[in-house]
Amino acid sequence: MIKHLRSAADLDAATATLILDTAGEMASLAGREVKKLPTLRGRTVVNLFYEDSTRTRISFEAAAKRLSADVINFSAKGSSVSKGESLKDTALTLQAMGADAVVIRHQASGAPHRLAAWVDGSVINAGDGTHEHPTQALLDAYTMRSRLGRLDGLRVAIVGDVLHSRVARSNVLLLTTLGASVTLVGPPTLIPLDVAALSRSTKVSYDLDSVLPDMDVVMMLRVQTERMQDSFFPSAREYSRRYGLDLARMRRLPEHAIVMHPGPMNRGMEIAPEVADSSRSTIVEQVANGVSARMAVLYLLLGGKA
Amino acid sequence: MAQPRADTVSKVILSGSDLQRVVDRIAHQILEKTSGATGTVLLGIPTRGVPLARRLATRIHAFEGIDVPVGALDITLYRDDLRLHATRALGKTEIPAGGIDGRKVILVDDVLFSGRTVRAALDALNDQGRPSSVQLAVLVDRGHRQLPIRADYVGKNIPTALSESVRVSLTETDGLDEVKLTGGVR
Questions:
Q1: Cβ contact (<8 Å) for A303 and B85?
Q2: CA–CA gap between residue A184 and residue A159 (Å, rounded)
Q3: Of A77, A177, A260, B73, which is the most exposed, with the fewest CB atoms less than 10 Å away?
Q4: pLDDT (tens digit, 9 = 90+) per residue, A209-252?
Q5: ipTM score of the complex?
Q6: Chain B: residue whose CA lies nearest to A17
Q7: Is B85 an 8 Å CB contact of chain A?
Q8: Which domains does chain A have, with CATH numbers?
Q9: Any bridge partners for residue B164, and if so which?
Protein backbone atom coordinates (compact mmCIF):
# COMPACT_ATOMS: atom_id res chain seq x y z
CA MET A 1 0.00 0.00 0.00
CA ILE A 2 1.09 3.56 -0.64
CA LYS A 3 2.05 5.75 2.32
CA HIS A 4 0.73 9.14 1.22
CA LEU A 5 -2.15 10.27 -0.95
CA ARG A 6 -0.90 13.52 -2.44
CA SER A 7 -2.12 13.13 -5.98
CA ALA A 8 -4.54 10.91 -7.87
CA ALA A 9 -1.44 9.95 -9.85
CA ASP A 10 -0.18 8.11 -6.73
CA LEU A 11 -2.83 5.48 -7.48
CA ASP A 12 -2.49 2.73 -10.05
CA ALA A 13 -5.61 0.92 -11.26
CA ALA A 14 -5.26 -1.92 -8.73
CA THR A 15 -4.83 0.40 -5.73
CA ALA A 16 -7.66 2.69 -6.84
CA THR A 17 -9.97 -0.30 -7.30
CA LEU A 18 -8.98 -1.61 -3.85
CA ILE A 19 -9.93 1.78 -2.35
CA LEU A 20 -13.31 1.77 -4.14
CA ASP A 21 -14.05 -1.82 -3.05
CA THR A 22 -13.08 -0.97 0.52
CA ALA A 23 -15.32 2.11 0.37
CA GLY A 24 -18.18 -0.19 -0.66
CA GLU A 25 -17.71 -2.23 2.50
CA MET A 26 -17.42 0.93 4.61
CA ALA A 27 -20.70 2.16 3.12
CA SER A 28 -22.57 -0.79 4.62
CA LEU A 29 -21.77 0.73 8.01
CA ALA A 30 -24.42 3.40 7.42
CA GLY A 31 -27.19 0.82 7.77
CA ARG A 32 -25.91 -0.55 11.06
CA GLU A 33 -26.94 -0.11 14.66
CA VAL A 34 -23.45 0.93 15.77
CA LYS A 35 -21.82 3.15 13.13
CA LYS A 36 -18.34 2.77 14.52
CA LEU A 37 -15.40 0.44 13.97
CA PRO A 38 -12.51 -0.13 16.40
CA THR A 39 -9.96 -0.33 13.59
CA LEU A 40 -7.89 2.86 14.14
CA ARG A 41 -8.13 2.98 17.93
CA GLY A 42 -5.15 4.82 19.36
CA ARG A 43 -4.19 6.49 16.08
CA THR A 44 -4.24 10.25 15.71
CA VAL A 45 -5.47 12.06 12.61
CA VAL A 46 -4.86 15.79 12.32
CA ASN A 47 -7.07 17.86 10.04
CA LEU A 48 -4.85 20.76 8.98
CA PHE A 49 -7.03 23.24 7.14
CA TYR A 50 -5.56 26.47 5.81
CA GLU A 51 -8.59 27.15 3.64
CA ASP A 52 -12.29 27.29 4.39
CA SER A 53 -14.11 24.04 3.92
CA THR A 54 -17.35 22.56 5.17
CA ARG A 55 -17.92 19.21 3.58
CA THR A 56 -14.36 18.00 3.18
CA ARG A 57 -13.34 18.77 6.76
CA ILE A 58 -16.54 17.32 8.26
CA SER A 59 -16.27 14.34 5.96
CA PHE A 60 -12.70 13.56 7.03
CA GLU A 61 -13.62 14.12 10.66
CA ALA A 62 -16.60 11.74 10.43
CA ALA A 63 -14.51 9.16 8.58
CA ALA A 64 -11.71 9.20 11.17
CA LYS A 65 -14.15 9.11 14.10
CA ARG A 66 -16.10 6.18 12.63
CA LEU A 67 -12.82 4.28 12.56
CA SER A 68 -12.19 5.27 16.22
CA ALA A 69 -9.13 7.43 15.51
CA ASP A 70 -8.49 10.49 17.66
CA VAL A 71 -9.13 13.62 15.61
CA ILE A 72 -7.44 16.97 16.08
CA ASN A 73 -8.90 19.80 14.03
CA PHE A 74 -6.60 22.63 13.17
CA SER A 75 -7.76 25.60 11.17
CA ALA A 76 -5.48 28.44 10.23
CA LYS A 77 -7.90 31.00 11.59
CA GLY A 78 -7.44 31.36 15.33
CA SER A 79 -4.11 29.50 15.37
CA SER A 80 -0.46 30.54 15.42
CA VAL A 81 -0.61 30.77 11.63
CA SER A 82 -2.27 34.16 12.05
CA LYS A 83 0.80 35.11 14.12
CA GLY A 84 3.00 34.22 11.15
CA GLU A 85 4.01 30.60 11.85
CA SER A 86 5.27 28.83 8.74
CA LEU A 87 3.91 25.53 7.39
CA LYS A 88 7.17 23.86 8.33
CA ASP A 89 7.02 24.96 11.97
CA THR A 90 3.40 23.88 12.20
CA ALA A 91 4.38 20.54 10.69
CA LEU A 92 7.15 20.06 13.25
CA THR A 93 4.64 20.78 16.03
CA LEU A 94 2.30 18.12 14.66
CA GLN A 95 5.23 15.75 14.34
CA ALA A 96 6.09 16.27 18.00
CA MET A 97 2.50 15.48 18.95
CA GLY A 98 2.74 12.18 17.11
CA ALA A 99 0.22 12.52 14.31
CA ASP A 100 -0.22 9.24 12.42
CA ALA A 101 -1.85 11.06 9.52
CA VAL A 102 -2.15 14.68 8.49
CA VAL A 103 -5.04 15.68 6.27
CA ILE A 104 -4.05 18.96 4.69
CA ARG A 105 -5.92 21.60 2.76
CA HIS A 106 -3.78 24.50 1.67
CA GLN A 107 -4.12 27.39 -0.73
CA ALA A 108 -0.67 26.68 -2.19
CA SER A 109 -0.38 23.96 -4.81
CA GLY A 110 2.18 21.38 -3.71
CA ALA A 111 1.90 22.04 0.04
CA PRO A 112 1.15 18.32 0.77
CA HIS A 113 4.34 17.31 -1.09
CA ARG A 114 6.41 19.64 1.10
CA LEU A 115 4.63 18.47 4.24
CA ALA A 116 5.33 14.81 3.49
CA ALA A 117 9.06 15.54 3.83
CA TRP A 118 8.64 17.03 7.30
CA VAL A 119 6.39 14.53 9.07
CA ASP A 120 6.71 10.79 9.65
CA GLY A 121 3.00 10.07 9.33
CA SER A 122 0.89 9.72 6.21
CA VAL A 123 -0.08 12.87 4.34
CA ILE A 124 -3.48 13.05 2.68
CA ASN A 125 -4.17 15.88 0.28
CA ALA A 126 -7.59 17.40 0.94
CA GLY A 127 -7.14 20.04 -1.75
CA ASP A 128 -4.06 22.10 -2.54
CA GLY A 129 -4.54 25.35 -4.43
CA THR A 130 -5.59 24.73 -8.01
CA HIS A 131 -3.64 21.47 -8.10
CA GLU A 132 -5.40 18.34 -6.79
CA HIS A 133 -8.10 16.91 -4.55
CA PRO A 134 -7.64 13.14 -4.83
CA THR A 135 -10.24 11.99 -2.29
CA GLN A 136 -12.89 13.98 -4.18
CA ALA A 137 -11.94 12.09 -7.33
CA LEU A 138 -12.22 8.80 -5.41
CA LEU A 139 -15.68 9.59 -4.09
CA ASP A 140 -16.75 10.74 -7.57
CA ALA A 141 -15.48 7.50 -9.11
CA TYR A 142 -17.21 5.53 -6.37
CA THR A 143 -20.48 7.37 -7.05
CA MET A 144 -20.22 6.73 -10.81
CA ARG A 145 -19.46 3.06 -10.25
CA SER A 146 -22.34 2.54 -7.85
CA ARG A 147 -24.84 4.38 -10.09
CA LEU A 148 -23.70 3.06 -13.48
CA GLY A 149 -22.11 -0.24 -12.49
CA ARG A 150 -18.70 0.31 -14.05
CA LEU A 151 -15.98 2.85 -14.81
CA ASP A 152 -14.22 1.22 -17.73
CA GLY A 153 -15.42 2.80 -20.96
CA LEU A 154 -17.52 5.51 -19.28
CA ARG A 155 -17.68 8.86 -21.04
CA VAL A 156 -17.42 11.75 -18.60
CA ALA A 157 -17.74 15.47 -19.33
CA ILE A 158 -16.17 17.84 -16.83
CA VAL A 159 -17.74 21.21 -17.44
CA GLY A 160 -16.85 24.75 -16.43
CA ASP A 161 -13.98 26.33 -14.56
CA VAL A 162 -11.37 23.63 -15.19
CA LEU A 163 -8.54 26.16 -14.85
CA HIS A 164 -9.08 26.71 -11.13
CA SER A 165 -10.35 23.23 -10.37
CA ARG A 166 -8.30 20.75 -8.38
CA VAL A 167 -11.32 18.44 -8.63
CA ALA A 168 -11.02 18.36 -12.43
CA ARG A 169 -7.30 17.61 -12.36
CA SER A 170 -7.64 14.71 -9.91
CA ASN A 171 -10.64 13.36 -11.78
CA VAL A 172 -8.86 13.37 -15.14
CA LEU A 173 -5.98 11.40 -13.63
CA LEU A 174 -8.07 8.88 -11.70
CA LEU A 175 -10.78 8.32 -14.30
CA THR A 176 -8.19 7.75 -17.02
CA THR A 177 -6.37 5.25 -14.79
CA LEU A 178 -9.66 3.40 -14.32
CA GLY A 179 -10.46 3.29 -18.04
CA ALA A 180 -12.99 6.11 -18.43
CA SER A 181 -12.54 8.85 -21.02
CA VAL A 182 -12.88 12.50 -20.08
CA THR A 183 -14.01 15.47 -22.16
CA LEU A 184 -13.24 18.90 -20.73
CA VAL A 185 -15.85 21.50 -21.64
CA GLY A 186 -15.87 25.25 -20.98
CA PRO A 187 -14.89 28.62 -22.38
CA PRO A 188 -11.36 28.57 -23.91
CA THR A 189 -10.16 30.93 -21.17
CA LEU A 190 -10.98 28.35 -18.49
CA ILE A 191 -9.62 25.19 -20.18
CA PRO A 192 -5.87 24.94 -19.57
CA LEU A 193 -3.97 22.82 -22.06
CA ASP A 194 -1.85 21.15 -19.38
CA VAL A 195 -4.90 19.46 -17.86
CA ALA A 196 -5.98 18.20 -21.26
CA ALA A 197 -2.44 16.88 -21.69
CA LEU A 198 -2.57 14.87 -18.44
CA SER A 199 -3.78 11.89 -20.43
CA ARG A 200 -3.85 11.02 -24.09
CA SER A 201 -7.54 10.09 -24.13
CA THR A 202 -8.71 13.45 -22.77
CA LYS A 203 -10.62 15.61 -25.24
CA VAL A 204 -11.49 19.30 -25.16
CA SER A 205 -14.68 20.98 -26.37
CA TYR A 206 -15.95 24.54 -26.16
CA ASP A 207 -19.53 23.59 -27.06
CA LEU A 208 -21.54 21.93 -24.29
CA ASP A 209 -24.67 21.19 -26.36
CA SER A 210 -22.83 19.06 -28.90
CA VAL A 211 -21.08 17.02 -26.21
CA LEU A 212 -24.06 16.14 -23.99
CA PRO A 213 -25.78 13.42 -26.12
CA ASP A 214 -22.68 11.19 -25.94
CA MET A 215 -22.06 11.34 -22.19
CA ASP A 216 -22.69 8.91 -19.33
CA VAL A 217 -21.70 11.45 -16.69
CA VAL A 218 -21.71 15.25 -16.61
CA MET A 219 -19.74 16.81 -13.81
CA MET A 220 -20.43 20.50 -13.34
CA LEU A 221 -17.70 22.57 -11.67
CA ARG A 222 -18.17 25.62 -9.51
CA VAL A 223 -17.03 28.90 -11.06
CA GLN A 224 -14.37 29.88 -8.54
CA THR A 225 -14.69 33.63 -8.59
CA GLU A 226 -12.54 33.91 -5.45
CA ARG A 227 -9.53 32.66 -7.44
CA MET A 228 -10.17 34.84 -10.50
CA GLN A 229 -8.05 37.93 -10.84
CA ASP A 230 -8.90 38.51 -14.51
CA SER A 231 -12.21 38.43 -16.30
CA PHE A 232 -12.43 35.02 -17.91
CA PHE A 233 -15.90 35.51 -19.40
CA PRO A 234 -17.98 38.60 -20.22
CA SER A 235 -20.72 38.14 -17.62
CA ALA A 236 -22.21 35.56 -15.28
CA ARG A 237 -25.35 35.62 -17.38
CA GLU A 238 -23.50 34.79 -20.56
CA TYR A 239 -21.52 32.06 -18.86
CA SER A 240 -24.70 30.52 -17.53
CA ARG A 241 -26.34 30.65 -20.97
CA ARG A 242 -23.51 28.84 -22.68
CA TYR A 243 -22.17 26.52 -20.00
CA GLY A 244 -24.87 26.27 -17.32
CA LEU A 245 -26.76 22.97 -17.06
CA ASP A 246 -30.48 23.74 -17.22
CA LEU A 247 -33.45 21.44 -17.80
CA ALA A 248 -33.35 21.81 -21.59
CA ARG A 249 -29.69 20.78 -21.65
CA MET A 250 -30.26 17.92 -19.22
CA ARG A 251 -32.83 16.49 -21.67
CA ARG A 252 -30.09 16.22 -24.28
CA LEU A 253 -28.32 13.63 -22.12
CA PRO A 254 -28.90 9.91 -22.66
CA GLU A 255 -31.61 8.35 -20.47
CA HIS A 256 -29.17 6.75 -18.00
CA ALA A 257 -26.72 9.65 -17.63
CA ILE A 258 -26.08 11.21 -14.22
CA VAL A 259 -25.31 14.78 -13.17
CA MET A 260 -22.62 15.44 -10.58
CA HIS A 261 -21.28 18.49 -8.76
CA PRO A 262 -18.52 18.51 -6.14
CA GLY A 263 -20.15 21.39 -4.24
CA PRO A 264 -20.53 24.04 -3.06
CA MET A 265 -22.95 24.93 -5.89
CA ASN A 266 -23.77 28.29 -7.37
CA ARG A 267 -27.40 27.46 -8.10
CA GLY A 268 -28.55 29.30 -11.21
CA MET A 269 -24.98 29.88 -12.39
CA GLU A 270 -23.37 26.57 -13.49
CA ILE A 271 -26.37 24.43 -12.54
CA ALA A 272 -30.11 25.17 -12.50
CA PRO A 273 -31.91 24.39 -9.22
CA GLU A 274 -34.31 21.97 -10.96
CA VAL A 275 -31.34 20.02 -12.31
CA ALA A 276 -29.53 19.96 -8.97
CA ASP A 277 -32.63 18.55 -7.27
CA SER A 278 -33.57 16.08 -10.01
CA SER A 279 -33.34 12.31 -9.68
CA ARG A 280 -30.36 12.28 -12.03
CA SER A 281 -28.34 14.44 -9.70
CA THR A 282 -25.99 12.57 -7.35
CA ILE A 283 -24.97 15.65 -5.38
CA VAL A 284 -26.29 14.48 -2.00
CA GLU A 285 -25.07 10.91 -2.63
CA GLN A 286 -21.60 12.29 -3.31
CA VAL A 287 -21.47 13.74 0.20
CA ALA A 288 -22.48 10.42 1.80
CA ASN A 289 -20.04 8.52 -0.40
CA GLY A 290 -17.32 10.98 0.62
CA VAL A 291 -17.31 9.61 4.16
CA SER A 292 -17.06 6.00 2.91
CA ALA A 293 -14.27 6.83 0.46
CA ARG A 294 -12.27 8.69 3.12
CA MET A 295 -12.75 5.85 5.60
CA ALA A 296 -11.33 3.52 2.97
CA VAL A 297 -8.31 5.79 2.42
CA LEU A 298 -7.66 6.18 6.16
CA TYR A 299 -7.96 2.44 6.74
CA LEU A 300 -5.70 1.49 3.86
CA LEU A 301 -3.08 4.11 4.75
CA LEU A 302 -3.12 3.65 8.55
CA GLY A 303 -4.66 0.23 9.15
CA GLY A 304 -1.55 -1.88 8.71
CA LYS A 305 2.01 -1.94 9.93
CA ALA A 306 3.43 1.58 9.90
CA MET B 1 4.28 -22.98 -6.21
CA ALA B 2 7.40 -24.00 -4.33
CA GLN B 3 8.18 -27.70 -4.09
CA PRO B 4 7.70 -29.11 -0.56
CA ARG B 5 11.03 -29.69 1.14
CA ALA B 6 12.14 -33.27 1.55
CA ASP B 7 11.88 -33.18 5.34
CA THR B 8 8.29 -31.91 5.37
CA VAL B 9 5.22 -34.04 4.95
CA SER B 10 1.91 -33.26 3.37
CA LYS B 11 -0.98 -35.46 4.38
CA VAL B 12 -4.61 -35.46 3.27
CA ILE B 13 -6.77 -35.44 6.39
CA LEU B 14 -10.17 -35.21 4.73
CA SER B 15 -10.90 -36.17 1.14
CA GLY B 16 -13.74 -34.70 -0.89
CA SER B 17 -16.26 -37.35 0.17
CA ASP B 18 -15.09 -37.21 3.82
CA LEU B 19 -15.64 -33.48 3.80
CA GLN B 20 -19.14 -33.91 2.44
CA ARG B 21 -20.01 -36.39 5.19
CA VAL B 22 -18.62 -34.07 7.85
CA VAL B 23 -20.74 -31.17 6.58
CA ASP B 24 -23.80 -33.46 6.58
CA ARG B 25 -23.12 -34.45 10.19
CA ILE B 26 -22.74 -30.84 11.35
CA ALA B 27 -26.00 -29.97 9.56
CA HIS B 28 -27.74 -32.77 11.49
CA GLN B 29 -26.18 -31.64 14.76
CA ILE B 30 -27.33 -28.08 14.16
CA LEU B 31 -30.88 -29.30 13.52
CA GLU B 32 -30.72 -31.33 16.73
CA LYS B 33 -29.20 -28.65 18.94
CA THR B 34 -31.36 -25.78 17.72
CA SER B 35 -34.60 -27.82 17.73
CA GLY B 36 -35.11 -27.77 13.97
CA ALA B 37 -33.03 -24.65 13.16
CA THR B 38 -35.92 -22.27 13.82
CA GLY B 39 -34.87 -18.66 14.32
CA THR B 40 -31.34 -19.61 13.32
CA VAL B 41 -28.97 -17.58 11.12
CA LEU B 42 -25.74 -18.95 9.66
CA LEU B 43 -22.91 -16.41 9.30
CA GLY B 44 -19.76 -17.50 7.48
CA ILE B 45 -16.44 -15.82 8.20
CA PRO B 46 -14.64 -14.99 4.91
CA THR B 47 -13.06 -16.50 3.01
CA ARG B 48 -13.89 -20.20 3.41
CA GLY B 49 -16.45 -19.91 6.17
CA VAL B 50 -18.89 -18.34 3.70
CA PRO B 51 -19.21 -21.29 1.26
CA LEU B 52 -19.24 -23.65 4.27
CA ALA B 53 -22.19 -21.76 5.76
CA ARG B 54 -23.98 -21.97 2.40
CA ARG B 55 -23.39 -25.71 2.21
CA LEU B 56 -24.74 -26.20 5.73
CA ALA B 57 -27.88 -24.26 4.77
CA THR B 58 -28.29 -26.35 1.61
CA ARG B 59 -27.95 -29.60 3.58
CA ILE B 60 -30.37 -28.42 6.28
CA HIS B 61 -32.84 -27.61 3.52
CA ALA B 62 -32.34 -31.05 1.96
CA PHE B 63 -32.88 -32.83 5.30
CA GLU B 64 -35.82 -30.90 6.72
CA GLY B 65 -36.98 -28.47 4.04
CA ILE B 66 -36.17 -25.44 6.21
CA ASP B 67 -34.62 -22.30 4.73
CA VAL B 68 -32.02 -20.98 7.13
CA PRO B 69 -30.86 -17.43 6.34
CA VAL B 70 -27.16 -17.34 5.38
CA GLY B 71 -24.81 -14.38 5.47
CA ALA B 72 -21.18 -13.36 5.75
CA LEU B 73 -19.38 -11.54 8.55
CA ASP B 74 -16.01 -10.03 7.68
CA ILE B 75 -13.83 -9.52 10.74
CA THR B 76 -10.82 -7.72 9.22
CA LEU B 77 -11.64 -4.37 10.82
CA TYR B 78 -11.88 -6.04 14.24
CA ARG B 79 -8.61 -7.99 14.14
CA ASP B 80 -6.14 -7.50 16.98
CA ASP B 81 -3.10 -7.97 14.74
CA LEU B 82 -3.73 -5.26 12.14
CA ARG B 83 -0.59 -3.38 13.12
CA LEU B 84 1.58 -6.46 12.74
CA HIS B 85 0.97 -6.89 9.01
CA ALA B 86 0.56 -4.85 5.86
CA THR B 87 -2.98 -3.55 5.38
CA ARG B 88 -5.43 -6.31 4.53
CA ALA B 89 -8.16 -6.08 1.92
CA LEU B 90 -11.65 -6.38 3.36
CA GLY B 91 -13.99 -9.30 2.79
CA LYS B 92 -17.71 -8.98 2.24
CA THR B 93 -20.16 -8.59 5.09
CA GLU B 94 -23.73 -9.55 4.25
CA ILE B 95 -26.27 -9.70 7.02
CA PRO B 96 -29.46 -11.52 5.92
CA ALA B 97 -32.52 -9.30 5.44
CA GLY B 98 -34.17 -10.40 8.69
CA GLY B 99 -31.17 -9.18 10.70
CA ILE B 100 -29.69 -10.99 13.69
CA ASP B 101 -31.58 -9.42 16.60
CA GLY B 102 -33.12 -12.15 18.76
CA ARG B 103 -31.83 -14.91 16.43
CA LYS B 104 -29.62 -17.87 17.20
CA VAL B 105 -26.49 -16.98 15.25
CA ILE B 106 -24.12 -19.75 14.24
CA LEU B 107 -20.69 -18.52 13.17
CA VAL B 108 -19.06 -20.78 10.58
CA ASP B 109 -15.32 -20.95 9.86
CA ASP B 110 -12.96 -23.45 8.29
CA VAL B 111 -10.24 -23.79 10.94
CA LEU B 112 -10.31 -23.03 14.66
CA PHE B 113 -6.77 -22.27 15.82
CA SER B 114 -5.82 -19.48 18.24
CA GLY B 115 -9.43 -18.35 18.71
CA ARG B 116 -8.55 -14.76 17.81
CA THR B 117 -10.66 -14.76 14.66
CA VAL B 118 -13.67 -15.85 16.68
CA ARG B 119 -12.96 -13.18 19.30
CA ALA B 120 -12.97 -10.58 16.49
CA ALA B 121 -16.16 -12.09 15.06
CA LEU B 122 -17.91 -11.75 18.43
CA ASP B 123 -16.93 -8.07 18.53
CA ALA B 124 -18.12 -7.54 14.96
CA LEU B 125 -21.40 -9.29 15.76
CA ASN B 126 -21.90 -7.07 18.77
CA ASP B 127 -21.87 -4.00 16.50
CA GLN B 128 -24.40 -5.58 14.12
CA GLY B 129 -27.09 -6.30 16.66
CA ARG B 130 -28.03 -8.50 19.59
CA PRO B 131 -28.52 -12.20 18.83
CA SER B 132 -30.27 -14.35 21.44
CA SER B 133 -27.31 -16.75 21.36
CA VAL B 134 -24.10 -17.29 19.41
CA GLN B 135 -22.65 -20.68 18.52
CA LEU B 136 -19.58 -21.70 16.55
CA ALA B 137 -19.24 -24.35 13.86
CA VAL B 138 -15.83 -25.24 12.41
CA LEU B 139 -14.68 -27.80 9.89
CA VAL B 140 -11.37 -28.41 11.67
CA ASP B 141 -10.24 -27.77 15.24
CA ARG B 142 -6.46 -27.88 15.28
CA GLY B 143 -5.93 -26.85 18.91
CA HIS B 144 -3.43 -24.28 20.28
CA ARG B 145 -6.04 -21.90 21.65
CA GLN B 146 -4.80 -18.54 22.95
CA LEU B 147 -8.22 -17.43 24.21
CA PRO B 148 -10.98 -19.15 26.21
CA ILE B 149 -13.02 -20.09 23.13
CA ARG B 150 -14.47 -23.45 22.04
CA ALA B 151 -16.57 -24.66 19.14
CA ASP B 152 -20.13 -26.04 19.44
CA TYR B 153 -19.85 -28.10 16.26
CA VAL B 154 -16.54 -29.60 15.13
CA GLY B 155 -16.07 -31.45 11.85
CA LYS B 156 -12.77 -33.01 12.81
CA ASN B 157 -10.30 -32.58 15.63
CA ILE B 158 -6.78 -32.63 14.25
CA PRO B 159 -3.90 -32.62 16.75
CA THR B 160 -1.17 -30.48 15.21
CA ALA B 161 2.25 -29.10 15.96
CA LEU B 162 2.57 -25.32 15.83
CA SER B 163 4.99 -25.66 12.93
CA GLU B 164 2.36 -27.44 10.83
CA SER B 165 -0.37 -25.79 8.88
CA VAL B 166 -3.87 -26.93 8.01
CA ARG B 167 -4.99 -26.16 4.45
CA VAL B 168 -8.70 -26.31 3.74
CA SER B 169 -9.64 -26.28 0.05
CA LEU B 170 -13.24 -25.92 -1.09
CA THR B 171 -14.61 -26.28 -4.60
CA GLU B 172 -16.11 -22.77 -4.47
CA THR B 173 -12.81 -21.06 -3.63
CA ASP B 174 -10.06 -23.50 -4.60
CA GLY B 175 -11.50 -25.84 -7.20
CA LEU B 176 -11.53 -28.99 -5.04
CA ASP B 177 -12.69 -30.26 -1.65
CA GLU B 178 -9.85 -31.34 0.61
CA VAL B 179 -8.21 -30.77 3.99
CA LYS B 180 -4.45 -31.13 4.11
CA LEU B 181 -1.88 -31.02 6.88
CA THR B 182 1.47 -29.67 5.70
CA GLY B 183 4.82 -28.61 7.10
CA GLY B 184 6.41 -29.69 10.36
CA VAL B 185 9.33 -32.06 10.71
CA ARG B 186 8.45 -35.65 11.32
A1: no
A2: 6
A3: A77
A4: 999 999 999 999 999 888 877 788 888 899 999 999 999 999 99
A5: 0.85
A6: B89
A7: yes
A8: 8-132+287-302 (3.40.50.1370), 134-283 (3.40.50.1370)
A9: B183
